[in-house]
Design goal:
The complex is a heterotrimer of chains A (about 220), B (about 230) and C (about 230). By secondary structure, chain A is mostly helical. Chain B has one domain. Chain B is built from 8 helices and no strands. In chain B, helix 1 packs across helix 5, helix 5 crosses helix 6 and helix 7 runs antiparallel to helix 8. In chain C, the strands form 2 sheets. Chain C has a 6-stranded mixed sheet with strand order 6-7-8-3-9-10, sandwiched between helices. A 4-stranded antiparallel sheet of chain C has the order 2-1-4-5. The relative contact order of chain C is 0.19. The radius of gyration of chain C is 17 Å and the shape is globular. The longest helix of chain C is centred in the last third of the chain and has 16 residues. In chain C, strand 4 and strand 5 form a beta hairpin. The chains are: A mainly alpha (about 220), B mainly alpha (about 230), C alpha/beta (about 230). Chains in contact: A-B, A-C, B-C. Chains B and C meet through helix 1 and helix 4 of B and helix 3 and helix 4 of C.
Chain lengths: ~220, ~230, ~230
């Protein structure tokens, strides 16, 4: 998995470089016109944002209940990437919304809970930074509560009729819109996986350095 | 074993309430703080001597949330004082039972604060608090329970952390906003000019769902996070 | 529990080694002293023995059971007197003892409490708030609180701090009584004069490491100086 990081990043960079041409070739959506094309970036960011939250929650549970020390590195990596992809989602969304709905923001369930999830990631990272020793366990406890948000975000647009498009929209896209979408999705996903890997590996190696340092002057 | 759990929780709660009844410190400071929050909102929102309509629900729950955070911080500060939290963790008792006892103590304290707060908000913002006393009480108890469930866990987790006073709100608010939303929407549905009972019932059900999820999660995580 | 075995225990906080390579064994009926300057790791080791902290490496065996398995059963055999005494100042002595007795699930709470109060010599001040007690009185109460459930492993962190002559003598007497009853006592202290003659085993800690241990009974100050220099 580790050795794939470099090719993934290379491939992802290449794909993203090419993406604007592919997106340009996609047909215009009937009502929203050009701005709808933000969707090709917004949708993958949002899915990966939720994925990061799920990974963070699962790894936090493994760290806390099954006492797997390496799980903590993955939880931290997932939280940082969650912050990143969350920021991307929360920036691309309003850019689209302003043109499509006339407002930058609306307090519907999906947007509200997405913003909250973003704040939860921020709080998690602040706790890890300023919480002192033992804050890895405390942050893991907090992450579990944050993860409960995720299914709510996903399901909320289907339960409440709001301005935000429903999840059933995606599978029904015509092929010439489907291609750029899945292309971008693949690019973003590779980027996500590569960054996760690198960040978690960094954290694990830091732990190994600490262990070596500690072992250094033992008889 | 179940009997042991409730026994321990009961005794921890009784101990907390005994101390509180004697000094009344946390109760009074929390109450006064909640009242200040409500007053600040009144001054901020009043135009030409009248407060806007439909703000009562929001202000009530903001006051509960702010003052609740303070109360929970103070309750655990007491356990830090002579390191008694360590004695509780050291006891051969079920650790989640200690959490449950603390939660009940905080809940009772908050409900007492709300007994004063609700009439005050009703008075200052002309909200019809007596229209649906049963449902309003259900909303308040269910919402406060959800908020306190998470807050008690987080306050306990932060007891040995240096910046605990500023970290508690940062951690607590994003996680408990769903509870706040449900509380506000439900209360607003009861207070509005054409009250919507079904809406209020929907939100009460939602709150009970969140409460069960949060409390279950907190009971599971209390022991691992409190033991280093 | 007739034996306590500490096997290669270490405790790290990031890069800081609070404890490393601590190993010793002791038996019931011993009074073991953890001696060393401030920051040597005495409190950390006591917290590990109390199961409040998990060691980063190594293990502690309580009789036949290890810490990982034990849980509540092990805790039922441990009584700890911490540096901060573990008492609620807003409650009376009787209420403090009552609460902890009920928490431990002891039968016949009033009798247990009355016995403990008598042992501590506080029966006449039982209904006064602990906030009004002197340091010596609090210490006696805190010790009885730790002993309510008849633990076989008694851990004390700096118990002689701030005590006058008579309180110190009373504490020593109580510990020796417990020792005769077959308990294992581990105490951390810098008070070498009191410890001399009380301890059956001394363990010297410096910067988180064990720099010596012995089972002599006299001349503690000299042995301490030698081990720590």
């Amino acid at each position: 998995m580790r050795r794939l990081s470099t090719p993934f990043i290379g491939l992802s960079a290449g794909m993203l470089l090419v993406a604007p041409w592919i997106i340009n070739a996609a047909p215009y959506e009937s009502t929203m016109g050009l701005v709808q094309k933000v969707f090709y970036f917004h949708f993958p960011s949002a899915i990966l944002f939720l994925l990061a939250a799920t990974i963070c929650g699962i790894q936090s549970a493994r760290f806390l209940f099954f006492k797997k020390p390496s799980a903590d590195a993955w939880a931290l990596a997932a939280a940082e990437l969650g912050l990143l992809f969350g920021a991307m989602t929360l920036v691309t969304g309003p850019l689209w919304a302003r043109k499509a709905w006339g407002v930058w923001w609306v307090w519907d369930p999906r947007l509200t809970s997405s913003l909250l999830l973003f704040l939860i990631f921020a709080a998690y990272l602040i706790l890890r930074k300023y919480g002192g020793p033992g804050s890895d366990k405390l942050a893991a406890g907090m992450a579990l509560f944050g993860m409960g948000n995720v299914p709510f975000i996903y399901v909320s647009v289907n339960v409440w009729r709001t301005l935000h498009p429903m999840t059933s929209v995606v599978p029904t896209l015509p092929t010439d819109m489907g291609i750029p979408l899945w292309f971008c999705f693949a690019a973003f996903t590779m980027l996500f996986l590569a960054l996760m890997n690198l960040r978690a590996t960094l954290a694990l190696q830091q732990a190994r350095v600490e262990a070596l340092y500690l072992a250094e002057d033992e008889a | 074993m179940m009997a042991g759990f409730f026994r321990v929780a009961w005794h921890v709660m009784r101990k907390d309430l005994t101390i509180e009844v004697r000094s009344r410190e946390v109760l009074l400071t929390t109450l006064l703080f909640a009242v200040s929050v409500v007053l600040i909102f009144s001054f901020a929102l009043v135009r030409e001597g009248r407060a806007p309509d439909d703000v009562a629900a929001g202000i009530l729950w903001v006051a509960i949330s702010f003052s609740g955070t303070l109360a929970m911080g103070r309750t655990f500060e007491r356990e830090r004082y002579n390191d008694t939290l360590r004695a509780l963790i050291l006891a051969p008792a079920d650790r989640p039972a200690i959490y449950a006892g603390k939660l009940l103590g905080v809940l009772i304290l908050m409900v007492l604060v709300e007994v004063v707060l609700v009439p005050l908000v009703g008075l200052l913002f002309t909200a019809p608090i007596l229209r649906y006393p049963g449902m309003l009480t259900a909303l308040l108890v269910a919402g406060t329970l959800g908020f306190a469930a998470v807050g008690t866990l987080f306050a306990a987790m932060l007891v040995r952390v240096r910046s605990r006073d500023s970290l508690l709100p940062i951690l607590l608010y994003p996680v408990t906003v769903p509870v706040m939303i449900a509380g506000v929407r439900g209360t607003a549905a009861l207070f509005q000019a054409a009250p919507d009972e079904d809406m209020a019932r929907f939100w009460i059900a939602g709150l009970l769902l969140w409460d069960s999820v949060f409390i279950t999660l907190a009971l599971w995580t209390f022991e691992p996070v409190m033991t280093e | 529990m007739n034996q306590l075995a500490v096997v290669d225990v270490a405790r790290h906080y990031g890069r800081r080694k609070a404890l490393s390579q601590i190993s010793f064994t002791c038996q019931a009926g011993e009074i073991v002293g953890l001696l060393g300057p401030n920051g040597a790791g005495k409190s950390t080791l006591l917290n590990i023995l109390a199961t409040l902290l998990a060691p980063s490496r190594g293990s502690v065996q309580y009789g036949a059971r290890s810490q990982a398995e034990g849980g509540a059963e092990i805790r039922a055999q441990i009584g700890m007197l911490g540096h901060d005494l573990f008492l609620y100042p807003e409650l009376t002595a009787r209420e403090n003892l009552s609460f902890f007795s009920k928490l431990y699930g002891l039968a016949d709470v009033p009798t247990v409490v009355a016995t403990a109060l008598a042992q501590a010599g506080l029966a006449d001040r039982a209904d006064d708030f602990v906030s009004g007690y002197s340091r010596g009185m609090r210490q006696r109460l805190a010790l009885e609180r730790a002993l309510l459930h008849g633990p076989q492993l008694i851990l004390l962190d700096e118990p002689f701090t701030g005590l006058d002559q008579s309180s110190t003598a009373a504490l020593v007497a109580r510990l020796q009584e417990r020792q005769r009853a077959g308990c294992l006592i581990v105490l951390a202290t810098h008070d070498l004069d009191v410890a001399d003659g009380l301890l059956t085993r001394a363990i010297y800690l410096k910067n988180g490491r064990m720099v010596g241990s012995d089972t002599e009974t006299r001349g503690l100050a000299d042995r301490y100086r030698q081990a720590l220099q």
